[in-house]
Design brief:
CATH class: Mainly Beta
Distance between the termini: 22 Å
Largest sheet: 5 strands, antiparallel
Number of strands: 5
Order of helices and strands: EEEEEH
Number of domains: 1
Oligomer: single chain
């Protein structure tokens, strides 16, 4: 199973971007997307931004992922 996580674009430097997921920063390749700007949300998978998403969708997805984590059995 593959999972892409919404990430907010903090800066763009040519074919890569600095993105943030819940205040953790990552480098992301933008080679699969056009027209990505600071403030956009992208779906991040294996270091690649694979799709742009709107802020509302990104925030709802992150909320749901956090809810799943909170309700998961702990070892």
């Amino acid at each position: 199973m593959c999972l892409a996580i919404p990430a907010k674009v903090l800066s763009v430097n040519g074919p890569s971007a600095l993105v943030s997921i819940e205040d953790v920063e990552y480098q992301a390749s933008l080679l699969m997307l056009d027209d990505v700007h600071v403030g956009d949300y992208v779906m991040l998978h294996a270091g690649f931004a694979i799709q742009k998403v709107d802020a509302e969708e990104a925030e709802e997805t992150l909320r749901l992922l956090n809810e799943i984590e909170r309700n998961s059995p702990k070892d």
